[in-house]
Amino acid sequence: MATPTLLILPGDGIGPEVMAEVRKVIGWFGANGRPFTVEEELVGGCAYDAHGAAISDAAMEKAQAADAVLLAAVGGPKWDKVPYDVRPEAGLLRLRKDLELFANLRPAKCFDALADFSSLKRELVEGLDILIVRELTGGVYFGEPKTITDLGNGQKRAIDTQVYDSFEIERISAVAFEMARVRDKRVCSMEKRNVMKSGVLWNEVVQQTHDARFPDVELSHMLADAGGMQLVRAPKQFDVIVTDNLFGDMLSDVAAMLTGSLGMLPSASLGAPDPKTGRRKALYEPVHGSAPDIAGQGKANPIACILSFAMALRYSFDAGADADRLEAAVERVLADGLRTADLIGPGGGKAVTTSEMGDAIVAALG
Ligand code: IPM
Ligand code: MG
Question: Which residues does the annotation say bind Mg(2+) (predicted)?
Answer without folding.
Answer: 225, 249, 253
